[in-house]
Amino acid sequence: MKHKIEVYSAGCKACTDTIETVKKLAGSEHEVVVHDMHRQEIADRAAQHGVRSVPAVLIDGELAGCCATRGVDESVLREALR
Fold this sequence. Notes:
By secondary structure, this protein is an alpha+beta fold. It has helices at 13-26, 40-48, 74-80, and strands at 4-9, 31-36, 56-59, 62-63.
């Protein structure tokens, strides 16, 4: 099953590391979209999804638990993509 993965980013080191990890784990099997939180409409959309800090990852429109701590928890993300 192909998933749409959205990464909300502010361009910081933690965000760029998360983007790299998500892209690596997603491979060509899943769609990855990176959103720039510096744009007001993106920040507004993120808030509607419950994003309170960055980096944040949504999988198929649902906030993923993979970024609840600093950085991305690869095992949680990998499990969510199954």
